[in-house]
Specification:
Layout: H1 2-30, E1 54-59, H2 62-79, E2 83-88, H3 90-99, E3 104-109, H4 114-122, E4 126-143, H5 144-148, E5 176-177, E6 180-187, H6 194-205, E7 212-215, H7 220-233, E8 239-243, H8 246-250, E9 253-255, H9 264-269, E10 278-285, H10 288-291, H11 293-301, H12 306-319, H13 323-333, H14 335-338, H15 344-353
Parallel strand pairs: 1-2, 6-7
Antiparallel strand pairs: 3-10, 4-8, 4-9, 4-10, 5-6
Helix pairs in contact: 2-13, 2-15, 12-13
Length: about 350
């Protein structure tokens, strides 16, 4: 029994020893390694501020609508702006620009709205971004073949020395009025046009009312129709019109010189001088300076010519084209003009978007 007890004690002692030896290893196996620190989350990208749409004043005549769509095509495809148009007249255009309902007017004939223009600029809410086209004009003209002839049509010169209104008395018979053959016919504007009254006063100031009848046209279509009909028949025509217009983009007409350049005092007194020069400008709401400076810079460099305007108007008339199609026509035909308005990378985007 004692032997068995001793043996049991030895076995217990061996077991305890083995257990003591294993305890460190068992503890190590039970410990889990500390997890590696999680990587810091990547900073969220700063969102690109959404560009506010650019809203154009859409007055109801072709040139301003075409210019609006030229500018809109460039802004959409070159700068990534959305655009919109609000129909208006000149009066509501000024209100819209001052209130900020509209951002841009691509056309204002300054002399025709000087008081409203000065008031808008003085308000500080509207800015003048410069000239869209500065060579617009109105005056008296004749078909070029009347002076130079046209060999391709078998037309001889009818008034070879006609350059100025001062030369008209010697050539009145060339323009004989079929209803009053003792005088020539001057095709004036239409009732309601301010220029019609001015033309009547000019005839008297130059003493030409003794040589020409003052024929008031019934409508713009009638006035233009008389010019086109005479031109196509190779017959003389003498009258008033203005540029840019589709008809002057289509016909080869010569504007007659006037003996006195535009003089404000003479103009107010008798109209016995040339018409005031036409300056057509771009206006914008002042907020564009801060929210769209690249648009302002683009519009400050936007500039065309009266000849280019007449060309796209003639394209519209001949093709029955819309203002959107006329804008594409301009961008395709006058690449060397509009690519000067924008940086080269913008120009490439616009060209890639053209049909």
């Amino acid at each position: 029994m004692a032997i068995k007890q001793k043996l049991g004690i030895k076995i217990l002692m061996v077991a305890l020893g083995a257990l003591l030896i294993l305890i460190p290893f068992i503890g190590c196996a039970a410990e889990k390694p500390a997890p590696a620190p999680a990587p810091a989350p990547a900073p969220a990208p700063t969102p690109t501020p959404e560009k506010e749409p650019i809203v154009f004043a859409d007055m109801q005549y072709d040139t301003v609508q075409v210019h609006g769509r030229i500018a809109a095509f460039i802004l959409e495809n070159g700068y990534g702006y959305q655009t919109d148009f609000i129909p208006c007249d000149t009066f509501s255009m000024f209100i819209g620009l001052e209130r900020g309902d509209m951002d841009i007017s691509m056309e204002l004939w300054v002399l025709s709205a000087m008081e409203a223009y000065e008031k808008a600029i003085a308000s500080g809410k509207v800015i003048d971004l410069g000239t869209n086209f500065g060579d617009a004009w109105e005056g008296w003209l004749v078909p070029t073949f009347v002076i130079k002839g046209d060999p391709t049509r078998g037309i001889e010169p009818m008034a070879p020395d006609l350059k100025s209104v001062d030369d008209l008395p010697q050539y009145w018979e060339v323009f004989k009025d079929p209803e009053e053959p003792s005088k020539g016919r001057f095709y004036n504007g239409i009732p309601g046009w301010l220029c019609t009254v001015s033309n009547s006063r000019k005839l008297k100031a130059y003493g030409l009312d003794e040589y020409f009848t003052d024929f008031i046209s019934g409508s713009d279509a009638a006035l233009v129709g008389s010019m086109v009909a005479a031109y196509e028949k190779g017959e003389p025509w003498f009258g008033y019109y203005y540029d840019p217009t589709w008809v002057l983009g289509k016909l080869d007409m010569t504007k007659l010189e006037e003996p006195v350049p535009y003089d404000e005092e003479v103009w107010e007194a008798t109209r016995g001088c040339a018409y005031p020069p036409g300056r057509v400008i771009v206006l914008a709401n002042v907020s564009l300076l801060d929210r769209a400076p690249e648009v302002v810079e683009f519009l400050r460099t936007y500039e065309t010519t009266a000849t280019q305007n007449s060309a796209f108007l003639a394209y519209m008339q001949e093709k029955g084209a819309s203002t959107e199609e006329a804008a594409i026509y301009f961008l395709q035909e006058y690449e060397s003009t509009w690519t000067k308005w924008v940086p080269s990378d913008v120009a490439e985007k616009v060209k890639a978007a053209l049909p």
